[in-house]
Request: fold
Amino acid sequence: MSLLIVGSIALDNVKTPFGEHQNILGGSAIHASNAASFFSSVNLVGVVGKDFPTEHLHFLKKRNIDTSGIQIKKGKTFHWEGYYEYDMNQAHTLKTDLNVFADFDPIIPDNYKDSEFVFLANIDPTLQLKVLQQIKKPKFIMLDTMNFWIETKKDILLKAINSVDLLVLNDAEARQFIDTPNLIKAAQELLATGVKKVIIKKGEHGAILFEKDNVFVAPSYPLEKIIDPTGAGDSFAGGLIGYLSKTNDLSHANLRKAIITGTAMASFNVEDFSLNRLKSLTKTEITKRIKKLKNITDFELSEI
Amino acid sequence: MSLLIVGSIALDNVKTPFGEHQNILGGSAIHASNAASFFSSVNLVGVVGKDFPTEHLHFLKKRNIDTSGIQIKKGKTFHWEGYYEYDMNQAHTLKTDLNVFADFDPIIPDNYKDSEFVFLANIDPTLQLKVLQQIKKPKFIMLDTMNFWIETKKDILLKAINSVDLLVLNDAEARQFIDTPNLIKAAQELLATGVKKVIIKKGEHGAILFEKDNVFVAPSYPLEKIIDPTGAGDSFAGGLIGYLSKTNDLSHANLRKAIITGTAMASFNVEDFSLNRLKSLTKTEITKRIKKLKNITDFELSEI
Reply:
């Protein structure tokens, strides 16, 4: 099936206990598209500045990602600078230069408008709604967001999440959205607002899917060494929707498979800076990691 | 099989957003014994003061817990006062009166010395070693500890954990023990010290078992309302070793079942204050919850 991903494209400065890199390819749409591209072709919409290296565009094209929806504007590409200390769960932002991303207008090219699977990565919910108005017959829409929009545009965000099939957000955002420390309660109340499905991402503790009558608790892949956590959530989302797009099966059982596929993709992503690990990643390695995720969570029923 | 549990017996004052109770039955050995008693008879060793209500002893006896190992000393029973706020993951201690527990000498009655399964709940590691010296032919020993012993008696604690089959500790303790934020690394380094198996308890995020060649990631049971988290970790441990004692099967597959059984017992324990929920709990309810834990974690392999 056709898959559209809309979000940020960035050149990041990232420092972790394992190294430091300048102007490396990043952004939500980039991490998601690359993870998805292992399973599906991708129509990518985003904006970059004139400084964006063409080698990155070539790289994306080689990965079966259509880059004709990337707008190249006068000015500089969105730039994030941050670091992780000892505790890799916590990103510390040093600088955010929106640059051309400040005026991003997500125009969907005509040949993308038939996309059946859509991932609205974290951008202004007003823009997320604007994307949806341009899509002709979406089959499955997933939306990510962040604390800033929950704080500043909650009403518009509520409208956006009620227009999609699946909301993904992290644990802190879910707690903030509903103002409760209990994630299960937060998820139930998010469902009560009208959103069909919710996934709460918990980093090293995995993710939980909530539907009206179903819960799925997914592990994370246990890694002793995490090189750079940047983009883990977007790789998860990209792997998930890429797998759904490939299989074109929206059953609950298949959504579980898609979540596990996303979990595997996120675990690879954090094994190196930027997209470096994904550059050498093979389908055999992905299959092996998914089998391992099955192995480490499987159990038989106790005889009480 | 015969199961020995050694630890604290307490009368607690507990306040949570859902209520406040004075002098309610608590303590690590109490929570663990009661959870275990659904699967195995229990030999309990601990100490109480003259103030300890005989009704509690009757209750324990009715639950198939042998109380002849409970020492009744002049003075008052161990007393903990604490509260939980909005975030139920965090216990706030107001007061700890060790009372008779300060001079606890864990003398194992002769008829307990043949116990094959042993749970050394959290007490001074010197005393944990003293218990082990009295046991004739243990088949499986599990040990819990806490931050205080990691800080103050690390060498003796290391000796104790190297004398047992399974170390259980929570995430903060594991990080503290190895001085790393990465739990997977902490567990691997704990194994490297010589301990055979490690379980890291992560509260609402479940638990992970680590062996040399095996990892098992267990979920927690998703609860929208937690009434009182006190004793959750000990109920987990009690359910786990109670199930092992019942089945007398130390295979890795059975240990996974035992962990899930412990997970179910912990989830019931937090549904009410003290042991109240366990008083009405049935085996049918436990079986149902374990099936639910299977249901919420099960998935088929993706086709990549």
User: Anything to note?
Assistant: DSSP finds eleven helices and 14 strands in chain B. The two ends of chain B are 46 Å apart (CA to CA). The mean pLDDT of chain B is 96.
